[in-house]
Amino acid sequence: MDAHNGTILWSIATPNNSIAYGPVTVANGVVFVIAYGTPYGTLMALEAISGKILWQYKENSSLAGGVSVVKGCVYMGTGISAMVDAYSIGGLHVDAFCLETHK
């Protein structure tokens, strides 16, 4: 959104029109958003300027919430309690996606 006039600069649909109700994380010009899916969710990395999908990762368990980015790595918790959604799939663990550097 343009901070000066409120114009929406870009918008993107989530996979299968799933819900993206968690917080987004922005780091180094990339927007990270989790598209909650039942029973599976998708982590999307979008170019902040254009909204272009840079990459996405479909997880084999439910996703909800946001991600953390530290020193070039994106950390994402997976699996949510069945008390939140009867269709959610467990598999409680943390995934890390790290940029590979070449010297």
From TrEMBL:
Its cofactor is pyrroloquinoline quinone. Keywords: Oxidoreductase. The keyword Acetylation does not apply. Residues 2-76 form the Pyrrolo-quinoline quinone repeat domain. Transmembrane segments: none annotated. Gene3D superfamilies: YVTN repeat-like/Quinoprotein amine dehydrogenase. Belongs to the bacterial PQQ dehydrogenase family. This is Pyrrolo-quinoline quinone repeat domain-containing protein. It comes from Sphagnum jensenii.
